[in-house]
Amino acid sequence: xxxxxxxxxxxxxxxxxxxxxxxxxxxxxxxxxxxxxxxxxxxxxxxxxxxxxxxxxxxxxxxxxxxxxxxxxxxxxxxxxxxxxxxxxxxxxxxxxxxxxxxxxxxxxxxxxxxxxxxxxxxxxxxxxxxxxxxxxxxxxxxxxxxxxxxxxxxxxxxxxxxxxxxxxxxxxxx
Amino acid sequence: xxxxxxxxxxxxxxxxxxxxxxxxxxxxxxxxxxxxxxxxxxxxxxxxxxxxxxxxxxxxxxxxxxxxxxxxxxxxxxxxxxxxxxxxxxxxxxxxxxxxxxxxxxxxxxxxxxxxxxxxxxxxxxxxxxxxxxxxxxxxxxxxxxxxxxxxxxxxxxxxxxxxxxxxxxxxxxxxxxxxxxxxxxxxxxxxxxxxxxxxxxxxxxxxxxxxxxxxxxxxxxxxxxxxxxxxxxxxxxxxxxxxxxxxxxxxxxxxxxxxxxxxxxxxxxxxxxxxxxxxxxxxxxxxxxxxxxxxxxxxxxxxxxxxxxxxxxxxxxxxxxxxxxxxxxxxxxxxxxxxxxxxxxxxxxxxxxxxxxxxxxxxxxxxxxxxxxxxxxxxxxxxxxxxxxxxxxxxxxxxxxxxxxxxxxxxxxxxxxxxxxxxxxxxxxxxxxxxxxxxxxxxxxxxx
Amino acid sequence: xxxxxxxxxxxxxxxxxxxxxxxxxxxxxxxxxxxxxxxxxxxxxxxxxxxxxxxxxxxxxxxxxxxxxxxxxxxxxxxxxxxxxxxxxxxxxxxxxxxxxxxxxxxxxxxxxxxxxxxxxxxxxxxxxxxxxxxxxxxxxxxxxxxxxxxxxxxxxxxxxxxxxxxxxxxxxxxxxxxxxxxxxxxxxxxxxxxxxxxxxxxxxxxxxxxxxxxxxxxxxxxxxxxxxxxxxxxxxxxxxxxxxxxxxxxxxxxxxxxxxxxxxxxxxxxxxxxxxxxxxxxxxxxxxxxxxxxxxxxxxxxxxxxxxxxxxxxxxxxxxxxxxxxxxxxxxxxxxxxxxxxxxxxxxxxxxxxxxxxxxxxxxxxxxxxxxxxxxxxxxxxxxxxxxxxxxxxxxxxxxxxxxxxxxxxxxxxxxxxxxxxxxxxxxxxxxxxxxxxxxxxxxxxxxxxxxxxxxxxxxxxxxxxxxxxxxxxxxxxxxxxxxxxxxxxxxxxxxxxxxxxxxxxxxxxxxxxxxxxxxxxxxxxxxxxxxxxxxxxxxxxxxxxxxxxxxxxxxxxxxxxxxxxxxxxxxxxxxxxxxxxxxxxxxxxxxxxxxxxxxxxxxxxxxxxxxxxxxxxxxxxxxxxxxxxxxxxxxxxxxxxxxxxxxxxxxxxxxxxxxxxxxxxxxxxxxxxxxxxxxxxxxxxxxxxxxxxxxxxxxxxxxxxxxxxxxxxxxxxxxxxxxxxxxxxxxxxxxxxxxxxxxxxxxxxxxxxxxxxxxxxxxxxxxxxxxxxxxxxxxxxxxxxxxxxxxxxxxxxxxxxxxxxxxxxxxxx
Lengths: 175, 449, 815
Known about the structure:
The complex is a heterotrimer of chains A (175), B (449) and C (815). Chain A is an alpha+beta fold. Chain A is built from 5 helices and 7 strands. Chain B has helices spanning 2-9, 38-43, 48-56, 59-69, 81-86, 111-118, 120-134, 148-163, 194-201, 230-242, 244-248, 281-288, 313-316, 322-327, 346-360, 366-384, 391-403, 410-425, 427-436, and strands spanning 97-102, 138-143, 180-184, 225-229, 258-264, 271-276, 296-300, 309-310, 336-341.
């Protein structure tokens, strides 16, 4: 090892002193994440009719390698349908502790109803709070259970700690 | 030695209606005023054949006579009638049925209609002879629903015959008893298929039945049944009257006797012509029907279900018998010749035909229900409305070949035969239409109006 | 008959279909329209194969192929539907050629052009024949560029069956099923060509066997309405078990998901139910998931029943038993308890030293006759006499009687199971109705199929059999006018019936509960069975009546029977029995020192109990039942969440522990050790289709109870397919059968001011019964019928007709 090599190394280090730091001061600053980042799931609605895209077919549950999804379907009331067609998901639960965020559910979904979004701040305290139900995931619900609980307690809006580019699959999701 | 003499002495068969020895038989009184009455029929030698059969012949002799005459079923398939009759098991005292198939629904066929309207007793007599030959206990006459006049005339004739002791118990003093019921169909082409006809007669849905068992073993109500076309039965009247040799003296080697040929389309005189088997299409079209009135390009030889021929000399000079047409890839069918003019787009013509079959498919088997009943008419509609693409012709061909031979009963093949023949002879018209969105010949732009 | 399928040589019986030859050779062709036990029709055209056969010369020798020296194979010009082709000597079947594959692929394409691709929402998805076959034999893409046919997506054919007309592929299985199996022609194709759809002439499916069409539908067109959208097929836990709904022991599959029973499907048992079950068996399970199921034991403390643990409950019972003499304790179990539970009850009785042990309901006469027919005997019989309403009482037997009418013996099983296409079966087969005679006091469904019917006056079973017996003894005997009236038939009719039974080689007499519940009629019936040399099939009131009698869960003396112990015992242990519905009995139960009720709901009796133990429903037990022909059949527990409930072996274990004993029936396993000694059968290894032991292992029959039903009354308690005690909790089934029906003759309806559809309450015997009035001329004047309860067995009963309470008047929809 020569002096030149050491100088090169030091030069590189010195060079970074004049560049913008890579480290983000999360949670003070927002994280920039890639549009294809796979975070907490969203259940989407058809933008025109507002009906849920989910038809309760359980294919996501079948595809799930971690057995994290539980679906129970029911028949739509034709006068007041939840989803287009005959069938909708009466119960839709994902256990976020079991979920490995592989995105198989998204791939298996025949209607594009379940899409992995960008939210990743889902740490919580109790087991049951990791079981996300339909109302926790339907489009329009912002933030994790914990974030929403905090926001409600403080009377503020949910503040998400990230920024990401748009992803077309996340139809109607607004961060 | 004697064989040679016999051969030398044997006269040439009558092959044309122009032959002076030829004489009209089945249609002799068609069109004659009052010919449908029993008085007229009897005064013109009616019911003599029945009397001859019932009083002087055994049932087996009648069957042998019909066998010897070489009569082949006139409904379309051309199965030898005498052989069919001989398939019946010997009587066992329980009911057995003769069914006359007068559900003449094939487009281009209208021969039975005039027999039933103008000479109904001829058919009654034919049924008596057939019933006697097979020792049937009861007869059903299944008439096409649209033949209203035919039905009333047949019903009247049967009532007359019954009153005169020609039907009922101990006919003509013999110990043979037989009666006929007339049933009007409800307008389904599929009822021309014999097992569907039996289902329809029994009051079931007119779906074809599984064969075997064949009707001769278990037909109507599970009893032995024979189903014959109207003209097969009326032919037997004349065979009994004049002998098998007379009948066999007409026609070609494989098809004997006379047949009723029908011609429709743009010809000078459309209609039914009784001719010996073996007469040519040219004879029928030019000599009797007076030739085409528009420039022709094709003709259908035997009713809509038979594959068409282009207007070429080799086909026009073909003798109209079962064997020759089968060899040339078509069928004699009912003998209903339809002439297609050049200016009629062949695709449009086939669309019309396919729609007919799509409407008539009974819905039992998949290829016919989905292919003939749903897919083909839509493909034709797409083509004739000018929306076709070049690859559609190959697709049509492929779909047709998937249906061909794979369906439960011959109805699907009856539709596919003409489709494939039109693709064979007039593929250029299909391709032109698919490529250009308009027909090669006709001004096919009704969809734009 | 030598047949070659692809490269496999087979030797098959004549008459085999080519499709069975293919499957027997281990090959595969797709099919949708063929169905086991039904006629092949060749409609779907999926099973096409290239078929050829050698031909014979006129002299009987084979036409030889010059090149090979083998008989020359003449191929059929068209591809043949193998399901409708019969094998011939030397036939060659090719299912692998390119031509066959193209044709099969083409048929899949045709089938799919009008089939909606809504598999994700379809209840059949994952278990769909069309789905599987499309993957196996289809191209994976469609060349069809046009609109699919659109039709009704949700057409309720009945309260039990939903029809999706778009999904239907017109295989005709359901239409043929109704004509061929139950003989109720309620469904047919309407319209033709691509517009063809399934429909009924009138709304509803008036048959007791409608659910089977959901099983046989190859696509998701016909669906079980009760399990609609309950789960996907791969999510269910399938339990192959035996139905405990009636005495026939039909094979079923219980599909459960997350601790709930979602549906029941028929399973195959060629010797019992083939693949058919009645709607009571299929749809009568919803009560087991009722939210008011008992899940923990209850103990009466300060007059109130309070939840407790099993330890507390058993300790409580043991404590209370200490103060009682063991022989004062009565133990009664319901007749659909398993053999293992029977062992537990016997062990408990033995431990207590009591002879007061019984199963209820139990007919007056033994079920174990000398000449017990098998169900296969019934299906191949050449003369059948049925007394009672078989359609309601034992639906499977009803169907097997109809098999006998076809005169086709059950098919021989092939290597791949039941033949897929049995060519002996035809559509609209002629039926030999003349072999069947049906006798009942009112019009029963099976009468439509019978050559002769007898309607004797209610309670006249004994007179009916005695009249026949008289003619069996002396063919020239004459019945007096009074006898003829009592038997409901003329001397001539009776003579013809006896002659037919006596002449028959395989005559079977089926005795329903009406005949068995009075000893004199059962004795007369058995005398007739003996006199005409027939076999008998006695229909027990519940699933294991035969088995519990065989096992000997019987009192040591007639007066210690169920009826007796309700009176005489100081303490009672009742499993699944609810005698307190009868007000007088309830009074007597209040005076007992100890009343232990083991049941699944808070019944009337449970409300009076000192201890209530939560019981396992019939779907949650492991065990064995013996059906009416004496066949041992396995019962397996479906994974149902029912808290700490347990069957009687669990009760025996807990009670035994509390008393410091290890009772013999403390578990299913230990009970089976006892049973093995008794019957020499390893019950843990019982095959799915059961075991029919030789007659000699049928044990001796102990004591018999007295008459169950009185000889007189104005209401006839009749068997019912839908179990009356659970009907209010079986929502779908209740809607389909129209509730517990009080059937009234039109004249009586006017007399008692009853209108059809009215909900009424009436006191039958001592029990208040809820019922829906159904006015019909099927019941004679002066007689009403009402479905039976376990505590109110079939037979005549006295009802207070003047005191009928009309609760709600509703217009009955004309059906």
